[in-house]
Amino acid sequence: MDNRIEKIIKKVYELKEVRENPSFYVYDSERIKEKIELIEKYSLNNVKLYYSMKANPNHSILKFMSKFKSINGIEIASDGELEIALSSFSADKILFTSPGKTVKELEKSIKSGIKYLNCESIVEAIRISEICQKNNVDKVNILLRVNPDFSVNEAGQTMAGISTKMGIDQCEFFYAYKFIAGLKGINVCGIHVFAASNVLDYNNLITYVKQVFQFVKDAEENGVKIDTIDFGGGFGIDYDDYHNGFDVKSYFEALDALVNDFGFRSKELILELGRYLIGESGYYIAEIIDIKDIKGNKHMVVAGGINHMRLPIAMEQKHPSFVISMNADKLYPEQPFIKEEHVDIEGPLCMSDDLIAWDEYVEKADIGDLFVLRQSGAYCYSCSALSFLSHTYPEEYLVSDSEIVRI
Ligand SMILES: Cc1ncc(COP(=O)(O)O)c(C=O)c1O
Question: Which residues line ligand 1 (CB under 6 A)?
């Protein structure tokens, strides 16, 4: 466990609002900075980095991200995200990708003048064209989302390359391209090919890049012009061993070689990273409210369950954990405790699968200690069942060694 983080968490825990509602998130700004700087160090000139805000849409996180020169802009997926994004990024730094945009969402984003709108089908392209004509918009820059005939190996979550709702099937691409490029108001700039999230081995993403490059080369030989290739997100973080990470240096070295081989130096390559940029910075902390031995199994009940932290159970992916000892007074001498045993860690909801960790080996824990889950910066707060049972929402803090900011 990291003493620096333990100290910060203890400081946050002293705050009145946390004492009253002892389930909260801490995001370590130093870690976010490290990740951005690592990409900055190894990336290529024609790669443009965007933050995928669905990973963590907190206003203050966006503001923090927007200060880095290497963050070119932000990727959004709804009109709600558009509004939040506009508070930290100008419209010309916004990409909108989503497989089911409403007319209202399309109209709002087109009128605000975003940089790229991804287009998921001929139906959506017709709607975009009609909106342009109705609002006298000269042209909208779009990226056609392709669902290719190949996928990314060993991904945490696969979005394309198999039968999903994403994009235009590769077998219909040429027909769709011709149809869409002929519509009034539409300027097709390139393609969007996001296929997988949480990929840990860079080789698997590089193999996919190579297949996409070949697809682009073939398409260009058949008269299709593709200036921009948006690869979406996908760089993973390790939920089993947080010391292990995605090899950014090797990824960009291999990408550089492919760019050379294909002669794609003048193409704009977009990365919309979420999990990699913010995931490792986050900690979910919940006070241990009770410990019970029921029918031969130990249960640790903590202040927030899937209402505050749903990702582990939703993805069936355990997060690394640790306990911070708080030495709270005992309520009675024989009070239950945990010592070198496997336990389920559960929230306060009236359901038996309200688990944030299960069969977890815990060396020592007492009632009043803090149970902490690492790797909780991405898809955790915002993917939780926050309103279920109307518990108070967990507070969030953006921290550094010198500052704790409630966000
Ligand atoms: C279109 C798009 N771009 C980017 C991302 C971010 O992916 P990741 O968090 O794996 O980087 C997602 C995640 O689902 C996405 O749907």
Answer: 52, 54-55, 75, 97, 194, 197-198, 232-235, 272-276
- Give the CA count within 13 Å in the CB-facing half-sphere of 292: 10
Distance, in Å, from the CA atom of 116 to the CA atom of 140, rounded to the nearest integer, reads 8
Helices assigned H by DSSP within 113-201: 122-134, 173-181
**Does the pLDDT value for residue 159 go beyond 90?**
no
245 DSSP assignment: B
Q: How far is the CA of 13 from the centre of ligand 1 (A)?
A: 32
Domain residue ranges in the chain: 3-26+280-406, 97-273
Tokens describing residue 28: 């370590």
CA 53 / ligand 1 centre spacing (Å)? 9
State the number of CA atoms in the 13 A half-sphere of 297 facing the CB: 11
268 token code pair: 């704009």
Residue 347 and residue 304 in contact, taking contact as beta carbons nearer than 8 Å:
yes
| Distance, CA of 349 to CA of 97 (rounded, Å) | 34
Question: Cβ of 185: how many Cβ atoms within 10 Å?
Answer: 20
Interval 31-87: pLDDT, tens: 999 999 999 999 999 999 999 999 999 999 999 999 999 999 999 999 999 999 999
Kindly indicate the confidence band of residue 154, based on its pLDDT and cuts at 50, 70 and 90: confident
The residue whose CA has the least distance to atom 5 of ligand 1 is: 233
Q: Give the amino acid at 36.
A: I
Structure tokens at 25: 């998130």
Q: Give the whole-angstrom CA distance, residue 168 versus residue 124.
A: 11
Residue closest via CA to ligand 1's atom 2 equals: 232
- Give the integer Cα–Cα distance in Å for 273 and 279: 10
Fold of 3-26+280-406: Lyase, Ornithine Decarboxylase; Chain A, domain 1 (2.40.37)
Fold of 97-273: TIM Barrel (3.20.20)
**Model pTM above 0.90:** yes
Closest CA to 162 of 122, 190, 123, 195: 195
